[in-house]
Each structure stands twice: as C-alpha cells, then as structure tokens.
Amino acid sequence: MTTPGTPQGAQKGRVVLVTGAARGIGRATAARFGRDGAQVAINHPPGEREHAQETARLVAAGGGTPFLVEADVADPAAVERMAVEIDQGLGPVDVLVNNAGICPFANFYDIDIDLWERVHQVNLRGAFLVAQAITRGMVAAGKGGRVISVSSISAHVGGAQQVHYCPTKAGVSSLMKCLAIVLGPAGITCNAVLPGAIATDINAEDLARPGKRQYFESRIPMGRIGRPEDVAGAIWLLSQPEADYINGAELLVDGGFFVNLQ
Ligand code: NAD
Ligand code: RM4
C-alpha cells in the first residue's frame, strides 16, 4: 500500500517546473512535488535568489532534487533561456505549474498604464510565454504531461482594488481552456486552479486592513483563510494519474468562499 507523498514509480524523478516558486503558493507546490522525489525546477525572478534557495532546501529535505532557474516570466528572452537551461539540466518537463503572479492592490484611478501593463505582463503574458516555451519540449518528448496554471477566484469575481488583476486571471483561465484543445491530442492536459483568499505576501497588507481578515473568515464556510499548502495539494492532485481525463477544467480552492452568496 502506498501513502500520498510516498515516492512511487512514475512520480519519482518527474521533472516539474514551478514558476514563481521563491515564496508563497509556488514554494509550497515545489515542496509538495519534492516529497514525491521529483526533480523540481524552481523559477524565481531576478533579486529573489535567497528566497528560492529556501524553497530548494525544502524540496531537498523532502527527498526531491531542486534546480534553481532565474527568469522574469514576462521577459520572452529570459523564458527561452530558462526552457533551454531546464532541458539541458533535467530533460523535458512532465508537469508545468504556471504560478508566478503579482497583485499590487490599487484604487481604479491610481492604476496608470505602466501598472496595468506590468500586471498583465507577469500574470497573463508570463503564463503564455512559459507554456509556449516549455510545452514545445513536452510535445516533442511524446510522453504527455500536465500544465496547471494558478488562476484565481478573481477570474469570476471582481475586486475594487484589483481592476488590473482580475482580468488577467480570467485570461489565465481562458488560456488553459484554449491549450486544453491544442495540447490534448499530445496527451498534455491543461487545467486551472482557482485559489480563494490564501495568506501569503501578495495580500499581507490587504488582509491587515481593519476588519478585512475577519470579514473574509466570516464569509468562508470553512471558517479560515487558506494556506499555501491547500493550493499546493490541489495542484498535486491534478498531476496524478487519476486526473488523466480532467482537461480544460477550473478547480476552485477557496473553502467554499465563492458559492457562499446568500
Ligand atoms: P506571493 O507574493 O507569495 O508569490 C508570488 C510569487 O511570484 C513569488 O515567488 C514571486 O517571486 C513570483 N514572481 C513575481 N513576479 C515574477 C516574475 N516576473 N517572474 C517570476 N516570478 C515572479 O503570492 P502567492 O499568493 O503565492 O501568489 C502565487 C499565485 O497565486 C499568483 O499567481 C497569484 O495571483 C495567485 N493567487 C493567490 C491568491 C492568494 O490569496 N494568495 C489567490 C488567488 C490566486
Ligand atoms: C486573489 C483573491 C484574493 C487576493 C489575491 C491577491 O485572486 O482576490 O482575495 O488576496 O488575489
């Protein structure tokens, strides 16, 4: 009998790329795959090497093999270099987790065109660029695989201070639906995971606003804000053989936040 997280057969040695794995959900995801004995490419942007090294330590502690790779996912040349580095260092990717993202909370009239562009470039263009660069090798390897993108509950609901961010998440969900069609014939499934409110650096300031955290907790049927590990677990589930026929889906990971309307 095997227990979840035990290195077993095809799980061990899988090549997994997690973008934005220096901190938060990406770090927890890298650590989760590390516990399978996977080879985990830990992408981080320039300036976040030290955080990424902590992720690498967690991956190694779980029995995985960490491989640090620097790239701003919004930069096409850097993404191409990353794809070559991973291919040369680890071989073709089995599981791509598009996780890198930013959400600088801002009032509508304070969002200038540069901020709008940057949020789109990291969140949506980044997911497109990485998917294109990495799945070329996956298709050529002919082994099938997974693309799992971290979208958001914000793909379906608005946010007064997230006017620039929510449309990028709707875009990421849509990107996965399109790629599910393009890559399904190659045995590569493409799905989106939609976290609700998860306590990480991205929303630390927002959740610290008077009453915000308590308000969210009162609206979430599970009674608590999510943890990065909650999302990492859902991503991992989609990477399992049992998820082979799930393609083009959106999976909310929000403790029931979204459905609690009435
Ligand atoms: P976080 O701030 O802890 O992590 C973001 C990660 O993205 C960091 O590791 C950072 O280094 C990386 N990153 C940022 N810009 C990058 C770039 N240009 N290139 C490469 N990496 C870059 O926040 P998080 O909550 O862990 O966010 C991870 C993903 O989850 C994001 O896509 C975010 O939109 C999504 N999400 C988060 C929540 C939440 O409540 N925390 C909810 C829904 C969706
Ligand atoms: C999510 C959702 C969360 C927010 C993060 C940054 O999509 O809106 O509430 O904290 O983004």
Question: Would you kindly provide a written description of the structure presented here, covering whatever features stand out?
Answer:
The chain is built from 8 helices and 7 strands. 45% of the residues are buried. The protein has a single domain (8-199, 228-253), classed as NAD(P)-binding Rossmann-like Domain (Rossmann fold, 3-Layer(aba) Sandwich), CATH 3.40.50.720. The protein has 262 residues and is an alpha/beta fold. Mean pLDDT is 96; it is low at 1-8. It has a 7-stranded parallel β-sheet with strand order 3-2-1-4-5-6-7, with helices on both faces. It binds nicotinamide-adenine-dinucleotide and beta-L-rhamnopyranose. Beta-L-rhamnopyranose binds next to loops.
Name a few traits of the molecule.
single chain; binds beta-L-rhamnopyranose; globular; 8 helices; 15% strand; alpha/beta; 262 residues; binds nicotinamide-adenine-dinucleotide; disordered N terminus; Rossmann fold
